[in-house]
Amino acid sequence: MRLWSLHPKYLDPQGLVALWREALLARAVLRGKTEGYRHHPQLHRFQLHASPRQAISFYLSVVHSEATARGYTFDRSKVGPVRSVRPIGASHGQLAYEWEHLLRKLASRSPAHYQQWRSVRTPQCHPLFRPEPGAVESWERTGA
Fold first, then answer.
1. pLDDT score at 36
2. Residue 63: what pLDDT?
3. Would 144 be classed as within a structural domain?
4. How far apart are CA 114 and CA 102, in angstroms?
5. Which of 3, 56, 87, 144 is in the most buried spot, having the most CB atoms within 10 Å?
C-alpha cells in the first residue's frame, strides 16, 4: 500500500488507479470493514489524525478530482462525505524520499511522465498534507 504524500497529478495512469484502489482499501480499514492491513505503516498518520475517516475521505476526494480532470470515471459515491480537515504534517525528508521513489517508477514504467516531471525540484504535496521540517518518517519502509 502506498498512500502518496505527493499531489496525485504527478502519477501516471497506472499509479493513479493504484492510488485510488489503495486509498479505498485504507478507507475500509479505517472504517473497521477489513481484517487485514489494520497495522499497515502507511495508515499510521491517518490513524493519528483527530478524524481519521474524514481525513481519508478528503484524501480520496483529491484523487477523485485528479481522475475526473483526466477523464476517468472513478465512482464518486465511494469517497464518502468530504469536510475540511486539519492537515497532516509531511516531513521534507518524506516528500523527498517519495519524489525520488516516484521518479524511479516513472522512469521505468512511464518514460513520458518521467520526462514531464523530472525537472521538478519541489513537488507539491497532496492538499491533505502540510510540508514541515524533518527526515523520512519512521513508518516508511525505505529498504535501507
1. 65
2. 97
3. no
4. 9
5. 56
What is the full DSSP assignment across 26-90?
A: HHHHHTT--STTTT-GGGHHHHTSSSHHHHHHHHHHHHHHHHHHTT----GGGT------PPEEE
Domain membership of residue 140 (yes or no) is no
The sign of the dihedral angle between the CA atoms of 41, 141, 133, 130 is negative
Which cell numbers hold the place of 25?
A: 482499501
Q: Which residues contact 19 (CB under 8 A, 6 or more apart)?
A: 2, 3, 4, 8, 11, 63
Residue 138 maps to a domain: no
As given in the structure block, the three cell numbers for residue 122 are 519541489
Is 51 part of a structural domain of the chain? Answer: yes
Taking the C-alpha atoms of residue 68 and residue 90, their distance in angstroms, rounded to an integer, is 25
For the record, the C-alpha cell of 22 comes out as 489503495
> Which residue ranges of the chain lie beneath pLDDT 70?
1, 36-39, 144
Provide the whole-model pTM: 0.93
The total of structural domains in the chain comes to 1
- Supply the pLDDT for residue 80: 83
Can you spell out the DSSP letters for 90-115?
Answer: EEHHHHHHHHHHHHHHHHHH-HHHHH
